[in-house]
Design goal:
It comes from Thalassotalea euphylliae. This is VOC family protein. This protein is an alpha/beta fold. The protein has one domain: Roll (2,3-Dihydroxybiphenyl 1,2-Dioxygenase, domain 1), CATH 3.10.180.10. It has two helices and eight strands; from the N terminus they run βαββββαβββ. The strands form two sheets. A four-stranded mixed sheet has the order 1-4-3-2, with helices on one face. Strands 5-8-7-6 form a four-stranded mixed sheet, covered by helices on one side. The longest helix has 13 residues. It is globular and about 45 Å long.
């Protein structure tokens, strides 16, 4: 149902470099961009995408309170890799990888982080027992 998600940024070059490396961990590459405005990534040309953009209205980018983008991966190891890469690239922790609820040993496994502009994301997978 979701075609793409766009996150605002204050520094397109810095955000683009961050997401180039982060999204490479899940096989996504740039598929569309407009210089000095936005860059978008996807795993396939016709799949869902993630973009970063300077705000169209030229006002400062801001983080939506309660807004989060979830990146679906296949395994807990991939969740861990995306989360670690996000932090290595300068992102901040919003919740270490693990099952939710924390006492579970199957089901929803996710790691939460914020990007360089403070946008909240997670990488998640579903683990069946």
């Amino acid at each position: 149902m979701i075609g793409y998600v766009t996150l605002g940024t204050a520094d397109l070059n810095k955000a683009s470099a961050y997401y180039d490396e982060l999204l490479a961990t899940i096989g996504a590459t740039r598929f569309m961009e407009e210089p000095n405005y936005f860059v978008a990534w996807s795993q396939t040309q016709d799949g869902s995408g993630l973009a970063v953009s300077l705000p169209f209205d030229k006002k400062p980018a801001s983080v939506g309170n309660g807004t989060m983008v979830a990146l679906e991966v296949k395994t807990p190891e991939e969740v861990n890799a995306v989360y670690q890469k996000a932090l290595e690239l300068g992102g901040t922790c919003e919740g270490k990888p693990g099952f939710r609820p924390e006492d579970a040993n199957q089901g929803f496994y996710a790691g939460y982080f914020r990007d360089l502009d403070g946008n909240k994301l997670n990488a998640y997978c579903i683990v069946e027992g």
